Amino acid sequence: MAYLKLHSLLQTVLCLSWEEVCFLLGKLGAPLWPELVMEETNSSRLETFSQLVPIMRTLLDQHADPIALQNHLPNLPITNGSTTFAEDLKVYCNALEWQSFYQQKVQPTMEQYELDTFGRSHDIMSNFWNSCFDDLMSTAFKRDKDRSDSKSKFQEVIVDPYMKRVRSENNRYVIWQKQNSNQLGVVWQHWRALRRLFTCERGAWANRVQPEVKWKLSGAETYSKMRLKLVPNYNYDSHSEASALRDNMGAESPRSSEPLPLAVAKEAKVSDMVDDHLEDEDLVFLDNKGEGEDESQKEKLVLSEDCELITIVAVVPGRLEVTTHHLYFYDGSSEKEETEDGIGFDFKRPLSQLREVHLRRYNLRRSALELFFIDQAHYFINFRKKVRNKVYSRILGLRPPNLFYFGSRSPQELLKASGLTQKWVYREISNFEYLMQLNTIAGRTYNDLSQYPVFPWVLCDYTSPVLDLEDPSVFRDLSKPIGVVNPRHAQNVKEKYESFEDPTGTIDKFHYGTHYSNAAGVMHYMIRMEPFTTLHIQLQSGRFDVADRQFHSVSAAWQTRMESPADVKELIPEFFYFPEFLQNMNGFDLGRLQISQDLVTDVVLPRWATSREDFIRKHRKALESEHVSSHLHEWIDLIFGCKQRGEEAVKALNVFYYCTYEGAVDLDAIANENERKALEGIISNFGQTPCQLLKEPHPPRMTAQNASRRQARLDTVPANIFEHLGKLRPFMEVVSDGLPLIQALVPKNQNHSIMHGSDTLVTVSSSGLIGTHSWLPYDKNITNYFTFTKDPTMTNLKTQRFLAGPFSPGVELGAQLLVVSNDGRLLFSGGHWDCSLRVTQLGKGKLVGRMCRHIDVVTCLALDLCGIYLISGSRDTSCIVWQVLQQGGFSSGLSPRPVQILCGHDQEVTCVAISTELDMAVSGSKDGTVIVHTVRRGQFLRTLRPPGDINLCSPISALQVGMEGHIVVQKSQEECSHRKGKHSIHVYSVNGCLLSSFTMEEQITALHLVSEYVILGTMQGSLHIRDLISLDSLITPLALRVSVRSVSITKEFSHILVGLDDGKLIVVGAGKPEEVRSGQFSRRLWGSTRRISQVSAGETEYNPAEKAGK
Question: Would you say residue 909 has pLDDT above 60?
């Protein structure tokens, strides 16, 4: 069987080598070699031979080399096709040739083949298995690699995107949940505000029992930078837990600030201080004349930057966007709080209302801006380090029309350019105004507690029953820092400075380790007033400070300054204008004094003060006194001037810890963020010294006598009539003879051309006749008096201008229905039959606007001080606040969409007033009440009910709002058969406190409030001037003998304009007129081509008694 398989293989294999043929011949063909198989029997040999014949035939015929066979076996039988091959081969095998072939060729070749093939089989097999193993491992590695690659690819293509999408969706879901929660919170806050509006005292669904209102300080400021107004605190907290946690361990020394880590302080210290200025690349935008665009053009985005809005209560992350028309801030905080302006701190302000932009520092970095607008709104915004200057330059590059522009000047240059120092020296501004302006220029702001405005202690007598401001001994020595006002402390402070030495050289010598103005000091004084109460508790780790360390008495606070050189706190501005901060009106538990066990509630006042208002009034009077005026420059040198730093500061014992000074520390030099933030907090608690404004001694103030002499010598401006109330004299001008003169005023913000130096005086008569007269309040040729040129169009029937009528039946056209825009271009009028509010262009008498939003006749109008908002009242019991549109810097009309619609009165609204800077809209009604709303949100604040007989109908007939928020209300009781009518005037503070009242039998027909004075005109023809606070009469009433229809004051406070019922204009001035030489008045008025016969020069003195006699 094996032979058959071998034969079959040999037939199928292609070709064997000669060595393989020899090997097969030697091994398989053994029977062919007789001498090798002698032991085999003949029978087995024959059988084997017969089986080998086919193999031999195939091997020799197909695989052996024919040439080699021919050479070695020439006699080999023919293998191919021979029938006798088997017999022939059998015979040939015994031949010598065959035997020799075996021995010489087959056997050696077979042995060599065996040696070559099987002798190294172990190595070959080893190599073979190694090769197999290597291939196996390579295959396994490749398989693992492919599997890993496939897994990585799967991870990359499938798993990672999936997980990323999962995380993204989870984050999106979380953000959505947060946004949804925040949105629900905002909606809930809006709903709360809406519910308050409906359920408040004057709301549609007013609760029968109103909850007790708690108050907090508003951010609204007056033009004198006073924060006077309180607003309801809807998130009131009694802080009972903070009271319970109070540590009543006695009056220890104030907690000192945490010490600065020395290594960190050394890293942050700056050796050379550089003034704050703009870089060259920022100045490029200031020189770009074409960037500002007209308001009529499309609004374009100029700049958008991430920033922080800094407020007293929070640092609000957000984004500021500057466009060609507006400034936008978007509140980016996750949880928006309810503010005075709405929900959150978002705002949108027109660039046209931007008044000032100041470079500021925040946390000792020069990275912030403070923006001031013409309605006294202001925003303190912090940017990244190098962004601030770019934003500043781009805003100024837009050329806002009302911007008080000082370019890139430093605070020192800013003060010099402002001329404020000269104005103060010449007594043109008050001490309070000057100090507030110095604080503002030096970077002090109400928005940052560590840079709060600083004011001096001016008195040292808080124990006498009477305060004598003529006695110099009652005043503090303003030439010395508060720490050494007590002379006993001076030597100790000096020795401390001289003995101090820092071995590392990081900390410079200093006299005081605390500061005269820091966040803790501000909260110390303002602890009774939110939000300062909450901030104080946060500073004290969730508790109130010890009662003995709190501000509980004015005299005790001064005594502390005298006893401890470590307590060097100066005062804050509120001591001179804000009586409410002395009252614990919210009822906080401030504890008891340790020794006396007296409860700490309201601040204990000095004996010479009868009330909080009296203390503030006398304290302010002390600040403005002659003694303080003559020494205030010495204190300015210490705080803002030449004695703030350097050798002069050392001599004056006025050196504070080095890191309180501007530019002494560079926080960005600290690489570790945690260390930097910790250092920011520590330095912030030390307080910050204002920017140095002066490097030479501040000039002293002129005495009042010398200032008056100078003014008289210069003879350039008219006298202030309120400084010469004993010299008032009336002069007469006939404007509309026989027709009542219901309005006469000089708009205060008129734009003058070079050719026309005079103002416009606007008059309106009861017939609607409009007059625009030329008015020059002062002329050297006519000392202390005026120049009046009557409008010639009033006497020409073809050119006369009238208000468009008709007016509603029963409406008497009066001053309360007429308002003139601040620039004198527009006249707003009410009382029309169609319930409209109309806008008339004064120059042409042309109707340019008509607003119909009230559903009954408009009964009264009023314009705010800055001319931005107009308020209208109506018989429909509502009031509407309108925005006055500006175009090219001029008033152009009213916005058709009301700013606010205010409700709450039960009867017709009779009078209105508005103060945009204090965010107050005030309205009086026939129901005898006065309601105060906010302008920005339209929220109800309070109801004022002037005292009077509740059984009698006493409508509110007039009201005015003063610069400091005083509300003057006129209340009238109508005359009946059994009694005379009574007319009363009531004065309220901005926060609704009744200050004074008086009643008179003369019917008041005109009311005007200016500065600290109330001017009244009566139907009986008297003109009264009274003190605003006390309502005491300051002059003997001027007897004009004809019913007064209107009263106004000129913008220079030089003249009172009185419109009479007989059409005459009475001009009240001060001083004695000089003789007018004939040659002095022969010149032409500036830009005037009118004849001299039309001009009045204040020569016709009004004497109604003489006229009656004639």
Answer: yes
